[in-house]
Amino acid sequence: MLGQVGLFRQNLPVDPNALYSVVGGANDYFDGNTNVSQVIQNLTNSIGSLAQGGAKNFLVFNLPDLGDSPFGKNLGFPDQLNQLTQAHNRQLASAISNISISNPDLNIYSVDINRLFKTIRATPTKFGFKDVTNPCVTGNFQQVANICDNPDDFLFFDDVHPSSRTHNLIAQAALTAVRGKTIPEPSAVLGMLTLGALGASGVRKRKLTSVTGVVEAEPSRMR
Questions:
Q1: pLDDT per position as a tens digit, 162-188
Q2: What CATH number does the domain located at 2-213 have?
Q3: Domain edges within the chain
Q4: CA–CA distance, 31 with 12 (Å, rounded to integer)
Q5: At 91, is the secondary structure helix, strand, or coil?
Q6: Is the entire prediction scored with pTM above 0.70?
Q7: Helix-, strand-, coil-residue percentages of the chain, each rounded to 5
Q8: Looking at CB atoms within 10 Å, which of 17, 35, 172, 200 has the fewest?
Q9: How is residue 162 annotated by DSSP?
């Protein structure tokens, strides 16, 4: 994450009116890293670097339960992954709160992806899903054995990456967080959730004239 932010700052100007998306940690935990504090520090340092360059608006995503993903289950230690996810999300919420208090000029919007995934799994049909356990794609990252006929029936496209339908719900959850509103009923879009918007009082402080995403883009695994 820090490396990507560094490359971004080297090659592109930091637009103070852009919205910067920050998400990361899953690859660390999938690879066996259990140092949650280090992962959170990397994320907060990334926000700090962008803010130092002039960024003002941040969209920060927590993690879904990694042990419940097909890849996490196949690794053989889903309970540990879920424990790491919970610790990650707690520490991330605390860290973002501290940043918001220390830097009131920043607008930081927090998107509770973990809660979103839990709600989808509890009531999949309300969101249009038929399978929230298995991936649409069978095989591995090197060789795909089969692709299902209806990817949008699945929560996961492959072992770790969400399907297009899931990505659409995540995008709408992010928009809801920025707007600081309650998510509508499942029949309308997402279900009875309220995704927290840290720094919501600053939502109207400035107009967002562009959107720039900064993510931990490692294509082989979920972020």
A1: 999 999 999 999 988 888 743 333 433
A2: 3.40.50.1110
A3: 2-213
A4: 30
A5: helix
A6: yes
A7: 45, 15, 40
A8: 35
A9: B
